[in-house]
């Protein structure tokens, strides 16, 4: 690989700074006492404490999964602090009262909250470490009956809804990290779109991990009732740290009859330095239940950050004629590792799913697609189309594809296409010979490669994603 | 065409270059003036294509000696993209496929990049669309070329036409056509040659790198150079190409060796 190819992915992480805000941090370690402490800090009802304790007991009996195609040192779960809340100086009534230091952080991240919220018509539910400090547009949404806010708040304001749905799509013992999350989750988003309501704006949450060595365990729950629809955006960025941070979120989506949930993510957590030191471990469980007839769950993700990504946003297509979609771009550089993909579980009749996965590997990174398409015996007339493309930049990286297909109904149609390509020196020379420099050339090739996914993103995110990929891969080519 | 008092555009002196440590160019001398058309002929492995790529700045080719001046300035001080913006154009022998990148986007970016360099106006997508369609008529290309990925799945002839289309858009001062005739049927050859001829002015120059005399029936050279073992061993007018066609490359070699007393 030439020097040109090596230089393009190596721009320092732009969001590497720590905000100096007093944090209320729990002592390190995990035991029943920690869980009781979290629950007590958040003044939770008894049923939720039971939920947590049950999950904890389950977690103790489980083992860390070994099957992903990633390597990392054993995580010491006793060396992590499971609760960290910024201490507000006083009770917050409006955005003006938010800690100015915190607001500056958002500025540095390029998330001008008021402007973004007002101009773009996006409600931003900002998660700062584990506790929501501000929620905008809530009132406007409330007018049409939409509940959008932090899940810990919803536990108090709408306990019946939370209790009815929490853990129904991702059961507490679903997997090792989901069990851990169920035991210790501190905050996340809650969103409820009532019957027949089309959410008037995209709902957006900017996540940010701040306190060093505090694991973050978000929990998000989105429910769309009959005929409702919503588009939810999740964007992430984290400060630079030397020690690995564990992140194990759980996201559950439920779509009733004729409901439609679109969930878009742009993830840019700290990926470690160019030698593979530091970075976030991102072990996430995301699953949507297309419960009702004609319901639709659509995942779009652009994954560029984290030292390790372990993530399979999935759809359980239970309702007849329900639709599941997964559009993904995963970029790895330096020593990043990603094992990501989806599961499409077809249960209802005439259910349809589409998978479009684009993996880009540069540097010494390792990028795997892992996907499962399962057509159950009841899923008569089910159809799946999968397309998995890999692109390699340089000759030190690797890409793997692990498609699993299980069909138990003869009427099903399942298609799978895969390709691997490489940004070569000859392509770059061709661009250069036409006056186009390496960085612009790579950006153009990558955007061309990813366009099937980018066009699924909401406008704002699409622009952001294009830029993000540009500087993620700067210095890797050439 | 040879013009009196035209300025030297390209001056190559004692140029040496290696690939993977093996010396391919062993001292090339060549002067190309504005308005001229030069043909460089020779057998496979004589160094013709290497010479073309060295001029364009391909990283795999290492210059180990000699000088090249372009418009009086040291060409080797410029990165490949700077050479292109300065007016050096290479029509590739094997144009590269770039799946996923739409031809119209690519063409507009390259056009605007070079325009910006020349201090001229860039075109927005709609303006460019009109402009490029006009240029495509010159090469009898169908408009659906614009929506396809750059060279991906193009036939050999389509790729070569796409190269000449880029040449028509960029209006280079020095166009180097590396075996543009190879793989072309007679109709495509006529179209491509016609395109090249229409682009020739008294201010630009063309170097045709070719194996066969055939192309020179359509694009008439002012000078013909014969290359062997990394050197230009004979230079003549257009008649030289015809003589080569009749007698073969061996004929020049033998003649040269005899002259050198080897």
Question: Could you please describe the fold and organization of this structure?
Answer:
The complex is a heterodimer of chains A (478) and B (262). With 478 residues, chain A is α/β, with parallel strands linked by helices. Chain A is 24% helix and 34% strand. Chain A has one domain (3-475). Chain A has 12 helices and 23 strands. In chain A, helix 11 (438-454) packs antiparallel against helix 12 (459-473). By secondary structure, chain B is of the alpha/beta class. Chain B has one domain (8-260): Rossmann fold, CATH 3.40.50. Chain B contains 8 helices and 12 strands. Chain B has helices at residues 48-56, 80-86, 103-117, 125-138, 156-170, 186-199, 238-247, 249-260; strands spanning 8-19, 22-33, 37-42, 61-70, 73-74, 88-91, 98-102, 149-150, 174-178, 205-210, 223-228, 231-236. In chain B, helix 6 links the parallel strand 9 (174-178) and strand 10. In chain B, helix 3 (103-117) crosses helix 4 (125-138) and helix 5 (156-170) runs parallel beside helix 6. The radius of gyration of chain B is 18 Å and the shape is globular. The A-B interface holds A 2, 4, 421, 425-427, 429-437, 440, 444-445, 448-449, 451 and B 56-60, 79-81, 83-85, 89-90, 92, 95-96, 98-102, 105-106, 109-110, 113-114, 117, 149, 166, 170.
Question: Count of DSSP E strands of chain B?
Answer: 12
Radius of gyration of chain B in whole Å, from Cα? 18 Å
Instruction: Give me the Rg of chain A, rounded.
Output: 22 Å
CATH architecture of chain B: 3-Layer(aba) Sandwich
Strand content of chain A: 25-35%
Helix content of chain B: 25-40%
The strands making up the biggest β-sheet of chain B line up spatially as 6-9-10-3-11-12
The domain count of chain A comes to 1
Mean pLDDT of chain A: 81
Question: In CATH's first tier, which class of chain B applies?
Answer: Alpha Beta
Task: Assess the beta-strand content of chain B as a share of residues.
Answer: 25-35%
Number of helices of chain B: 8
